[in-house]
Design brief:
Elements lengths: L9 H13 L3 E5 L2 E5 L7 H4 L2 E2 L4 E2 L4 E2 L4 E2 L3 E2 L4 E2 L4 E2 L4 E2 L4 E2 L4 E2 L4 E2 L12 E2 L4 E2 L4 E2 L4 E2 L4 E2 L4 E2 L4 E4 L6 E4 L1 E2 L3 E12 L2 E13 L6 H12 L4
Parallel strand pairs: 3-6, 4-7, 5-8, 6-9, 7-10, 8-11, 9-12, 10-13, 11-14, 12-15, 13-16, 14-17, 15-18, 16-19, 17-22, 18-23, 20-24
Antiparallel strand pairs: 1-2, 20-21, 23-24
């Protein structure tokens, strides 16, 4: 799906914000744990067909599709998590973030959320993507279908994503191309005080379209020696 095909339904965000104003703080107890919040925790996982490993937390108002696996993680209000996706240990899915099907969010991944302004686009991770350990993706970045982010990649709407696989660099901002294999990088930038290295991300290869998704992921990680 093209980035331009995604649409933000502002009324949904406004409804969430309005509910915060109308709700009162309530104490909830789960075993030895106590919470004090305006939004209850999600329940009914067995009926929904979702595996949830303690102490994973999903707030009411998020949607987790049948077949998803939640390790000890956090999924915020308004988020969407697709079937076959694993949200691994200590990963966070922010407000209204959209995580597709058969995605792996590895340990400690931070997917940014956004409620205000209501028209702002949340982070979108499309189907079959792999987000490596301790990656941070914020400011409405779109990770397109089948893309792979190596461990520690940091992406915002302004950090350049530079394809270095050809004879000339190609720069993207705000989106990772489909099936791209991305690692953290730096580039020189001139400041009044001198020349310094600033963050960027590098596209160093692409997953094969001719093989099974899982096989192509394994091949890509081995071929490009990507840390996950």
């Amino acid at each position: 799906m093209l980035a331009s095909d995604w649409r933000v339904h502002e009324w949904l965000k406004r409804a969430i914000l309005l509910s915060f104003r109308q709700r009162s703080m309530v104490t909830a107890k789960v075993g030895p744990f106590e919470y004090h919040d305006k939004i209850p925790l999600k329940r009914g996982y067995a009926e929904a067909g979702v595996r949830v490993v303690p102490p994973a937390v999903v707030r009411h108002g998020a949607f987790v599709e049948r077949g998803a696996v939640l390790m000890p993680c956090y999924v915020n209000v308004g988020a969407w998590v697709g079937s076959g996706t694993m949200v691994d240990t200590w990963a966070t899915v922010g407000s209204c973030a959209q995580i597709g099907r058969n995605v792996h969010l590895a340990g400690g991944v931070g997917i940014g959320g956004v409620l205000e302004p209501p028209g702002a686009r949340p982070v979108i991770v499309e189907d079959d993507a792999f987000i490596g350990s301790r990656c941070i993706v914020t400011e409405g970045v779109i990770v397109e279908r089948g893309a792979v982010l190596g461990a520690g990649v940091r992406l915002t709407g302004s950090i350049p994503i530079i394809d270095v696989t050809g004879s000339q660099p190609v720069t993207y901002k705000g989106r990772v191309p489909s099936r791209a294999i991305v690692v953290q990088g730096t580039r020189p930038k001139q400041f009044p005080a001198g020349n310094y290295q600033v963050s960027c991300a590098l596209v160093i290869g692409y997953r094969s379209q001719a093989t099974d998704v899982k096989v192509s992921l394994n091949d890509a990680l081995r071929e490009h020696d990507v840390a996950v």
